[in-house]
Design a protein that fits this description.
The structure is a single chain. About 50% of the residues lie in helices and about 15% in strands. With about 270 residues, it is of the alpha+beta class. The protein folds into two domains: about 1-120, no CATH class; about 120-269, Aminopeptidase. It has a six-stranded mixed sheet with strand order 1-2-3-4-6-5. Helix 5 (about 55-75) runs parallel beside helix 7 (about 110-115). The protein is globular.
């Protein structure tokens, strides 16, 4: 599969498809970067930052790697649908880069690397990252060190339809061949404060109720970033374009905060 074929498959904007070739590298240099990506990701990141490689270049680089990952998908008999859904994350973040900087590229270099390394797969509405809990994570989720879990991530761009989420959980059990898997999640969508803002019938609250919330932390105003697209000191400046924005804005204006919930869906006894 070529870069152009990958871009068409994951619906990259036409402007990118027309101009992506200008960011290519000689083969020798490409493989030097690839070696760093695969063998010392921290050095890869530092070199990318030091050489001031722009967002467009890393988009091209990841698309080139995605071509190779496609072959690995075929070898493992992973469907074209899962490839499309997983790597459409590149398109989501490419458009987000344009929204923020008016440039089609990739800023989320570390995050998208998970898909390139086949550490994360999108199965329907949700993304899943298999983990073996170290001591620190186990403590955070009140689980045992060494426990195998699936870390759940919620990609942007679509409604959090409750039924579609249920289908994703079932697909994950089959894909990872583990009917007794434990799901964990760390997200603003699991913040109990949302129950003061949203009705019980909302998809977000229904999704939240699937989890046992073990902890809420306030390290970062993730809800504001995701709902409004940015974080502002002046909460009164936030837009009110939908019911969630209106409700969250009014909640924040009372001086309250929305945290990030850590939740667990345990295997059935």
């Amino acid at each position: 599969m070529t870069i152009q074929e990958v871009m068409l498959r994951i619906e990259i904007p036409e402007e990118v498809r027309k101009n992506i070739g200008k960011y290519s590298l000689p083969e020798k240099e490409f493989y030097e970067w690839k070696h760093l990506f695969e063998n010392d990701f921290e050095i890869f990141l530092n070199k990318w930052r030091e050489t001031q490689k722009h967002f467009q270049w890393v988009l091209w680089f990841y698309l080139r790697l995605a071509c190779e990952v496609h072959e690995k998908y075929k070898e493992k008999d992973i469907s074209e649908e899962i490839f499309h859904d997983t790597f459409s994350d590149i398109t989501i973040w490419c458009k987000e880069c344009y929204r923020k900087y008016k440039v089609y590229g990739l800023e989320e270099v570390e995050w998208v690397a998970k898909s390139i390394r086949m550490e994360l797969f999108r199965l329907g509405r949700l993304q899943f990252e298999p983990l073996i809990l170290d001591q620190k994570l186990a403590q955070k989720y009140h689980l045992l060190t060494g426990e195998k879990v699936l870390n759940v991530h919620i990609p942007a761009g679509e409604r959090l339809d409750y039924c579609e989420c249920q289908k994703s959980f079932e697909s994950a059990k089959k894909f990872f061949s583990n009917e007794d898997v434990i799901f964990i999640c760390d997200s603003w969508l699991l913040s109990p404060e949302l129950r003061e803002i949203l009705p019980e019938t909302s998809n977000i609250i229904r999704f939240q109720k699937m989890y046992h919330i073990v902890e809420v932390h306030y390290d970062f105003p993730q809800a504001e970033e995701r709902v409004f697209g940015e974080i502002r000191e002046n909460k009164d400046a936030y837009p009110e374009e939908n019911s969630l924005q209106r409700g969250l804005k009014q909640y924040l204006l009372t001086g309250k905060k929305v945290g990030i919930g850590r939740g667990v869906i345990r295997k059935q006894k």
